[in-house]
Amino acid sequence: MAANILTSRCVLVTGATAGIGxxxxxxxxxxxxHPTVIVMGRRQARLDELAxxxxxxxxxDMDTTPDKxxxxxxxxxxxxxxLDAVILNAGVQNMVNFAxxxxxxxxxxxxxxxxxxxxxxSMMAAFLPHFIKIGDSLQKERPALLVPVTSxxxxxxxxxxCNYSATKAALHSLTFSLRIQMENAKTxxxxxxxxxxxxxxxxxxxxxxxxxxxxxxxxxxxxxSIVMDGLKEGKIAITAGSATATYDRFEKPKENLKxxxxxxxxxx
Length: 268
Hints:
Elements: E1 10-13, H1 19-29, E2 36-41, H2 44-52, E3 56-59, H3 66-79, E4 85-88, H4 106-137, E5 144-148, H5 162-184, E6 189-191, E7 193-195, H6 210-213, H7 220-233, E8 237-239, H8 242-250
Parallel strand pairs: 1-2, 1-4, 2-3, 4-5, 5-6, 7-8
C-alpha cells in the first residue's frame, strides 16, 4: 500500500484556523486511528476555539525568517516527538495588475512569495532531519509525510493573481523534485501534494472577491471529502474539480519522468 495518512500518529496542519486547513484537521482527528492533530495559525481566538474541540494548538506566523521557522520546528518536535506528518496549507492570495505599475505593492508581492513558497520550503527543510531519522527507525508501514497544498493555478495561472499563481507553480515544481530526492536517498519520507481548484474559503475575503467567486467554487465539504480519500489512498497528487482535468492533461505524464532523465544524478 502507498504511504498514507492512516499510519500517521501525529499530524501538524498549518493555516488551520479556517477553510481547508481547519476542515482537514477535523477530518484527520476523527480518523479511526485517532492521531494527535496540532493546528497552527496566526489568530489566537480561533486557536482557542479549536483547543476546546480537543486539538493541540500552536500560534505561528509563516511570514518570517528561516531561522525562526527552524526554531519553531525544533520546538514542535521537542514537544511532539511522534510527529510524522505535516500538511502545509498556510497561504495568502493577492491581486496585482502590472498594467498599472504605479499601483503595484511590492511589499505584498514579497510577503505573498515568502508565505506561499519560501516559508513552506524552510518548514519542510526544518522538519526533514526529524522525518528522515524516524523513517530510518520505524517499520515501513509507518512513513513520514510532507503534504504541501498548491493550487490548480500552479498549472494554468490566473492573470489577476499572477504572483499567487507563480508561488504555487514554484512549490508544485519543488515538490516533484523533493519526491524524487527522498526516493533516491531511500528515505521513508513521502511527498503527497494537494492541488485544489477554486474552493469555498476565506482566502478571497481580503480582496473583496468572495461574493463573485462563491458562484463558481467547490463547496468545502465536497473538496475535503475528496482530499481525505486521496490522503487515505496515498495519492501523490490529490486533485479535485477542474484541477483534476488540468493535472491529467499537463502534469500526470511527468510522473513517469522520475524513471528517466529527471532521475539522473548530476553529481556523477
